[in-house]
Amino acid sequence: MKRILSAPDIDFAGIRTELGVDEEYGDDALAEARAAVDRFAGTREDHTHLPFVTIDPPSSKDLDQAVRITADGDGFVVDYAIADVAALVVPEGALDQESRRRGATVYFPDGSVPLHPRELSEGAGSLLPEQVRPCVLWTIGVAGDGSVTDVLVRRSRIRSVARLDYAGVTADAVAGRLHPSIAALPAFGELRHEVALNRGAVELDLPDQTVTRTARGWRLDLEPHTPADMWNSQVSLLAGSCAGTIMADAGVGLLRTLPPADDDAVEGLRATARALGVPWPAGFSVGRFLAGLPGDEPSTLALQSAAGGLMRGANYLALDGTGTAAGIDDDSKRHAAIGGLYAHVTAPLRRLGDRFATEACLAVTAGTPIPDWVLRALPTLPKILRSADSLGATADRASIDLAEAVILRDRIGERFEAVVMAAATERRPAQVFIADPPVVARCAGDLRPGDRIGVELMKADEVSRSVEFRPVA
User: Fold this and answer.
1) Distance (Å, rounded) from C-alpha 98 to C-alpha 7?
2) 122-151 pLDDT, tens per residue?
3) Given this model, what pLDDT does residue 329 score?
4) What is the mean pLDDT of the chain?
5) Which pLDDT tens digit goes with each residue over 398-409?
6) DSSP-assigned beta bridge partners for residue 317
7) At residue 298, does pLDDT exceed 80?
8) Is the peptide bond prior to 437 cis by the omega test (within 30 degrees of 0)?
9) Which of 29-43, 270-284, 310-324 has the highest mean pLDDT?
10) pTM check: above 0.85
11) How far is residue 66's CA from residue 87's CA, in Å, rounded to a whole number?
């Protein structure tokens, strides 16, 4: 019988204090957020007659995206509405400056600390159902072979008619009752996923380790990605790829980049596969090999974890339109895991850079000058966004580490079943995954990735937020 281990209370406030994360935006920024009005209200196209829907986690209130997909012969037309944050934030005003100080929304198990005050991020700017909201509307034609045929970007207003979540969309797809606005989503998602694999994209499918509040207290959970996660991510990736191409061609904007994995890293993954006895079919790229792994095998967990080492070096590249970026080779502009050009434009309520990249795309496609406030900001954004990414990752890992230590603190000396995720290196011990409760932790010993072993809990310290095991026979 599976035993659920939980803790009645875990205080994450200390992590927020340690990281300097709070909701003190300042009086001027708050006043701007509360008084936000659409600066482009008089020039928008009206698409409130189109039935858009949102797909987000059930608890989300900062809804950046609404979608509608229709079949078009053997292809598709994707209408993708993105919250128009730039229309609600005064350029270089107090709220703009405060958002640049933060860089991104930071998430904790007991709630988020938003990039923008909640009055905007969960109110006037959020694409909540049955509310008319300003947006930037991407309309993208996709041919039957998955290629992009045309892209249109403009300011619009829409009304979402339904708020959906990933589990519900997946269940509706199985039952054949998808909302009409996304009846074509599964076919579109599978097509674009195949296109991505063909161009060398690498998609890791590790389940998310989460800390969840229940009636019995805090609990560690493992949340596998649903098919709807993948289908919906393909919509975002499509818009991001189009945005990256628009800005790279114009030489102005903000790209998300990732260098190609070096040969040694790829050979290391191949060696891990050989050691685990997992065949790597001839001619298969890294992405296609990983996509074909069975989800219920311990070797898959080890290989997906090892493949994370191929994703090092993610960065942002500002193209300022002055010729500074001229001569940069294509690989320096590309995102290797996506297999092409890419930019973040689909989550402006939660990520700072999306607002500026979107403004660049609007101007380029309309043939108008890039706003001066965008050009002045572009060179400063990569550093801000790198810092925000690091902070978000630290907050996430620290929260999970604390939860693991608190939930396991009374279990010292107990035995658990584990899967070895990574072997020891000169700098760190081996890592193991415990399924019940779902824990990723250090383990002593010379261990081989993919092996199933018994381990004993040796340490669970909430002060240092550390958990350690040792192998047992």
Assistant:
1) 36
2) 999 999 999 999 999 999 999 999 999 999
3) 54
4) 93
5) 999 999 999 999
6) 255
7) no
8) yes
9) 29-43
10) yes
11) 17
Average pLDDT over residues 376-382: 97
CB distance 122 to 23 below 8 Å: no
Predicted confidence band of residue 301 (pLDDT cuts 50, 70, 90):
confident
Distance CA 458, CA 470 (A): 7
Two tokens, residue 96? 């703009």
Whole-number Å distance between alpha carbons of 114 and 28: 17
Written as six digits, the tokens of 276 are 């685990």
- Write down the pLDDT at residue 2: 46
Least Cα distance to 29 among 119, 124, 109 occurs for 119
Radius of gyration of the chain (CA): 23
Q: What token pair was written down for 167? A: 């589990």
- Token pair of 336 as six digits: 């290797």
What's the token pair of residue 41? Answer: 């209200």
Residues 178-199 pLDDT 10s: 999 999 999 999 999 999 999 9
Q: CA quadruple 48, 53, 59, 60: dihedral positive or negative?
A: negative
Distance between CA atoms of 198 and 340, rounded to whole angstroms? 12
